[in-house]
């Protein structure tokens, strides 16, 4: 296990996944803060911390469930047409469905943030909370929705890294735990940073579109899909890591340019 975690692929996957988990958790932090702010001031900090810890436990449980389904590799149906051949398995179905979901959810989120930036916050603000338990229930419900994105992203980033699914599962759990504790320690600064630089969140959602497309091609590859006699290949994860690293580097340059411009002004 330790040897696997120290490999370059595992370290890159862990760093990238932790970063994306934090970016994906920004909305969660905002909504948790909105829910916590409806409580008395003495309970707000407690609600935020407990809410994020419960969110971590919930995501780990869901990871075990999804990883079990991903392990179902054996095909249960074969489609053989003159122009299309597919060996369908539960693993391929989950990866394909997850890829479609990530692409749909990411494009929808980008549209809402551009056209309706306060839509989700307004809907949560309408719900009054009278106790800590009510706040925690609402926080868990909110996190469950966002956990789907997070878990599918984790599966997409770690699928195929190691033939032993337990190793990949451990890598996903480590990334979730690290990201949650970072969010607990820096919830307010992270939220303020993203509010100041909303392009980071848009960038994270754009990464999800790439991951969604990768999941779809991975599902086709695992199903041994042949389209008009051509086999569908998997996209090497190194390409994805490079695209993410390069985009972050460009965004970092933008931050430096904007900072210098503000100083000059």
TrEMBL record:
The keyword Membrane applies. GO terms for cellular component: membrane. Keywords: Membrane, Transmembrane, Transmembrane helix. The keyword Transferase does not apply. It is a multi-pass membrane protein. It is found in: Membrane. Coiled coil: none annotated. The chain crosses the membrane at residues 12-36, 48-71, 83-104, 135-157, 169-190, 202-219, 239-257. SUPFAM superfamilies: MFS general substrate transporter (SSF103473). Belongs to the TerC family. This is TerC family protein.
């Amino acid at each position: 296990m330790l040897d696997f975690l120290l490999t370059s692929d595992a370290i890159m996957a862990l760093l990238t996944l932790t970063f994306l988990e934090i970016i994906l958790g920004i909305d969660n932090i905002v909504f948790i803060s909105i829910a916590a702010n409806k409580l008395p001031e003495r309970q707000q900090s407690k609600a935020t911390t407990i809410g994020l810890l419960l969110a971590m436990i919930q995501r780990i449980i869901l990871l075990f469930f999804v990883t079990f389904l991903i392990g179902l590799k054996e095909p249960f149906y074969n489609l053989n047409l003159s122009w299309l051949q597919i060996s369908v398995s539960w693993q391929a179905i989950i990866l394909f469905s997850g890829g479609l979901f990530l692409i749909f959810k990411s494009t929808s989120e980008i549209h809402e943030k551009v056209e309706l930036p306060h839509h989700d916050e307004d809907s949560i603000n309408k719900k009054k909370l009278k106790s800590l338990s009510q706040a925690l229930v609402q926080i868990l419900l909110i996190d469950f929705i966002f956990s789907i994105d997070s878990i599918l992203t984790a599966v997409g980033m770690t699928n195929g890294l190691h033939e032993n699914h337990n190793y990949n599962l451990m890598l996903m759990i480590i990334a979730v735990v690290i990201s949650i504790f970072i969010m607990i320690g820096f919830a307010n600064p992270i939220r303020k940073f993203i509010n100041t630089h909303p392009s980071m969140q848009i960038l994270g959602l754009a990464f999800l579109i790439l991951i969604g497309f990768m999941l779809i091609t991975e599902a086709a590859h695992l199903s041994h899909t042949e389209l008009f006699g051509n086999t569908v290949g998997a996209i090497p994860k190194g390409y994805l890591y490079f695209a993410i690293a390069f985009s972050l580097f460009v965004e970092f340059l933008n931050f430096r340019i904007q900072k210098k411009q503000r100083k000059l002004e």
